Amino acid sequence: MYTLFEDNHLIAINKPAGVASQGAAAGQPSAIDETTAYLKQTSHTPGDVVLGVVQRLDKPVTGVLLYARTSKAAARLSAQFADKSTIKIYHALVTNALSQPEATLTHYLKKNEQTKRVDVRDSPAPGFQNAVLHYRTLQQTEHATLLEVMLVTGRLHQIRAQLSAIGCPILNDTDYSRRLSKPQALSTKPFPNNAIGLHAHSLTILHPISKEQLTITAPKPKAWQAILS
């Protein structure tokens, strides 16, 4: 984990796979704890370091993760995420080529409290929330297809669930490939066991204090290079 952007109001890190954004089990690392420890060590300011959570990434997902360093920044950033004025671009490795190289997907999602995953439907239903994303194919290799995904809505496990629903599960994502009638090959060496092929590539926000547009980008994990070469 290392910092991608840092000032007195914000800090963005490149979250590794296998690390929870926050609320990790006892004895397990979390991104917020490690970022707090980093700031406490480097800022040399008295008192506790308190970070505001304005977004989250699933534990097996890598990439840009943003925290607020002040209450004012946290409130303003949370408002941007709520009104969907941020731009979130992901890169996804999927196991199949898509029938359309570029498209918009619309589904309806609901968290399943028993499985801790989300159920997917093609049409509205009670308790289900609409989920919309745009994707386009960037590269296709023998092992996987690389997609650029832009979220319109921000639902739990949205990208993972929607791509699985069209028969193109994310590489190594066993949670959302098991529901396919024809399971796909899920692991490609040397892909880490605690990672899936989903990376938060970039995040564009308005800086909460300066109001200038800020785009933060995270390089893809090294394991992706062998798959895409």
Task: Describe this protein's structure.
The chain is α+β, with helices and mostly antiparallel strands. Helix content is 19%, strand content 33%. Strands 1, 2, 3, 4, 5, 6, 7, 8, 9, 10 and 11 form an eleven-stranded mixed β-sheet that branches. It is globular and about 55 Å long.
Key terms:
single chain, 229 residues, alpha+beta, 5 helices
What topology does this entry show?
Blueprint: E1 3-6, E2 10-15, H1 31-43, E3 52-53, E4 62-68, H2 71-82, E5 87-94, E6 102-112, E7 117-121, E8 129-140, E9 145-151, H3 158-165, H4 174-177, E10 198-206, E11 213-217, H5 223-228
Parallel strand pairs: 4-10
Antiparallel strand pairs: 1-2, 2-4, 3-4, 5-9, 5-10, 6-7, 6-8, 8-9, 10-11
